[in-house]
Amino acid sequence: MSNFILNKIIFVQTVLILITAVFGVIYVRYTWIRVENAQSENVLQIARSIETTLPVDDIKKLEAKPSDIEKPQYRMIKNLLKEIIRVNNTARFAYIYTEQTVNFREKLFINADSEPEDSKDYSPPGQEYTEADIAYFQPFKDGKEFVTNPVVDRWGTWRSVFVPIKDTAAGKIIAVFAMDFDANYWNRLLLYEVTESSIVVVLLLIVLFISISTISKNNSLKNEIAGHKKTVGMLRESEEKYRLIFEYSPVGLLSFDDKGVIIACNDNFVKIIGSSNEMLIGLNMLNLPDKILVSAVQKALDGSTGTYEETYHSISANKVTQVRALFAPMVVEDGRIRSGVGIIEDISERKQAEETLLKSEIFHKNLLNSIDAGIVIIDPVTKIIETVNVTAAHLFGTEESAILGNRCHLFLCPAHENCCPITDLCQTVDNSDKILLRHDGSRLPVLKSVKMITIKGKEKLLETFIDITERKQAQEDLLKSEADLRKLNSEKDKFFSIIAHDLRSPFTGFLGLTELMVTDMKNSSLEEYQEIGGLLHSSATNLFGLLTNLLEWSKMQRGLTAFNPEKLSLKRLAEEVINVFDETAKKKGIKIEEEISEEIFVMADKRMLETIARNLISNALKFTKKGGSVTISAKESSAGSNGTIEISVKDSGIGMDKELMNKLFKIDTQTSRKGTDNERSTGLGLLLCKEFIEKHKGEILVESEEGKGSRFSFTLKSSG
C-alpha cells in the first residue's frame, strides 16, 4: 500500500511537472509575441513622432536627382536625418525615398539619408533604391505604416520601420520616411525578456521540484543555513570593501537620502569643498544657493543622472573651486528612490591647463596668420590638410574651412595620388618654383619649400609658399623687352641701310645733273636744260617719296603716329589719291580704273589710309609697262566677319615670283628692284602699309605671278 501511494504521488508529481513545463513554454511564447509587438509599436511611435516634424514643403521641393545636393532644403533635411540618428542611438540609418515612374515602371529613389558624404554607405540624392523589397512600394498605394521582419542586405541585418509622408494639401503620399534598427539589438531585447520569462518558469519548476523533494528537506535546510552564513559573510566583506573604497577614493564621494540630505562623505569630498565633516553631514543640498547644483541633485532624486561642472563657491569656507560632479540615484526593488550617491572631482588644474593650451593655440594661430606667406601643415600618411593660415587661404582663393580636411593631391598640388614629390618620389622642395592649384581651377606660380617637422611626436609636412606671379610677369616682360630690343636693333640697322643706300643713289644722280648744268652750261641748249630739269624733278619726287615713307616709318616705330579713325567715303579718298598720280599715269600711258561704290564707308585714320593707297598705287604704276592698267576696287569681304571691307589694287605689270613674294613685308630682307622705267624701289612703303593696316586690325595679302601682274588686297572695318 505504501508503495502504491508512493507511486501515485510520484505520478501526480510528474504530471504536475509536465503541466508546469507546457505552461512555461506557452508563457515564454506569449512573452516573445508581447515584446515583439511592444517593440514594433515603440519604433513605430518614434518614426511617427519624427515624421510629424519633417518639413513637408521642403521635401516637395526635392526631385530625387543629383542636382538636389545644391539645394538648401536638401542640406537642411540631410542635417535633420543625421541629428535623428545621433539622438536615437538604437537606430542605424534614417532616410527618405520617393516613387517615380521610369520607362513605364515604378521605381524607388533616395531623396536624402543620414550618412555623411564621405561614408561608404552614403546614398546621394537620385540614387535608385535597388535593394528595396516589393513591400517598400506599399505605403504609396495604401498610405499605411509598417515594420518589417529581419531583412539581410549588404549593410547587415535590420528591422525597418516605414511611415508615409503625406501632402495634406494635395491629399497624396509624396515620400516615405524610414529608419533601420539593428536586428541584433532587437533580438537581444527579445532574448532578455524571454530569458526573464524562462527564468520565472524555471524558478517555478524549481519550486515545484523542491516541494516534491520533501525527503531531502532537512539537508536542504542545512544547505540553506550554510548558504545564508556564506551570504552574510560576503555581504560583510562587500560592505568592508565599499567602506575602504569610499574612504580612500582619490575623488570626493558622498551619499544622500531621498530628501537630498548628506548622510555620509569621505575626506576627499571635505577637502575639495573646503569645509568640515561635521558641517557637511546633515546638509540639505536642495537648499544651496547654487541653482545648477540643486538641479543636478534633483535629477538624481527624480531617477536620472545629474551632472555639474562649474565654479563652486563654498560660503562656509569662503573657497572657490573648479569642480565636476555626478549625482546618481539608488533605486529599491519597488522603484522608489531610496537615496543617491555623488562623485566630485577638483578640476582646477585641468581647467588651468586647458586655458593655457587655448591661449597657446590662439597665440600660434595669430603668429601663423601674421606671416606674409602661405603655410600649410599636412599629414604625410593620409595627405590630409590639418592646418592652414590666412595667407594660404587667400592664395588658394577660398575660406580656411573649405581647405581643412581635404587631401592635398589634385587640390593644392597638381600631383596625382601616390605621386607626391616628397613622400612618394623622395624629392626635395626648397625654394623651388611650383604650381598651386587654386579653388577656381586656375594655377598660381609660387616659390615653395617643404620640410618634415615633428608635432607632438608625429611627423608632419610643413609647406610654405609665396606668390611669385609678379616676379614671373617681370621675367616675361624682360624676355619680351629683350625680343623687342633685338627687333628694334634689326630695324635700326635696316633704317641706316636704307639711309646709306637708298638716299645715296638719288642724291648721286641729283648731284651729277647739277654738276652737268654748272660745267656745260654754255654748250647746252634750252631743250637740254628742259630735259635735265625733268630728270631733276623726277629724282626729287622719288627722293621726296622715300623721305616721306622714312619719316612715317620712323614715327610709327617710336609710337608717335596719332591714330584717329573716322567715317570715310572710300570712293572719294581713292579719287583724291588717283589725282595725285594722274600725270605719272599719263606719261607711262597707264589707265587707272576705280571701281568703288559710293555707298561704301570705312572707319579709318584718313592720313594712314591715304599713305596706304598712295604706296600701293605708286608701286602698281612703277611696275606696270606702258599701255597697261591699274584697277582699284572694294567689296564686302566674304571670308571675314560681318562689317569687313576688302580693298584691292590690281595691275597688269611684270608681277613677281614666289621667292620675292615671301620677302615682302620683312624689314630684314632686301626687296628693292627697279620699275619698268628704271624707277627706284626700297620696299619700305609696303612695310609702312602693313603696319598701318594692322593698326586698323586688318590684314594685307598679295597675289602675283611673274609676267601677269599683281594684286594687293587689305581689309578694313566698315563704318556701317
Structural features, described:
By secondary structure, the protein is an alpha+beta fold. The chain has 19 helices and 23 strands. The strands form five sheets. Strands 1, 2, 3, 4, 5 and 6 form a six-stranded antiparallel beta sheet that branches. A five-stranded antiparallel beta sheet has the order 8-7-11-10-9. Strands 13-12-16-15-14 form a five-stranded antiparallel beta sheet. Helix 14 packs across helix 19 and helix 15 (570-580) crosses helix 17 (606-622). The protein is elongated and about 180 Å long.
Contiguous helical run count = 19
Tell me, rounded to a whole number, the average pLDDT.
80
Helix content: 40-55%
Shape: elongated
Set down the secondary structure blueprint.
Layout: H1 2-53, H2 56-60, H3 72-87, E1 91-102, E2 105-113, H4 138-142, E3 146-147, E4 151-153, E5 156-167, E6 172-182, H5 183-212, H6 217-248, E7 252-257, E8 262-265, H7 267-273, H8 277-280, H9 291-301, E9 306-314, E10 319-331, E11 337-346, H10 348-370, E12 374-378, E13 385-388, H11 390-396, E14 432-437, E15 443-455, E16 458-467, H12 469-501, H13 504-519, H14 526-557, E17 566-569, H15 570-580, H16 582-588, E18 591-595, E19 601-604, H17 606-622, E20 629-636, E21 644-651, H18 658-663, H19 684-695, E22 700-704, E23 710-717
Parallel strand pairs: 18-20
Antiparallel strand pairs: 1-2, 1-6, 3-5, 4-5, 5-6, 7-8, 7-11, 9-10, 10-11, 12-13, 12-16, 14-15, 15-16, 17-19, 20-21, 21-23, 22-23
Helix pairs in contact: 1-5, 13-14, 14-19, 15-17, 17-19
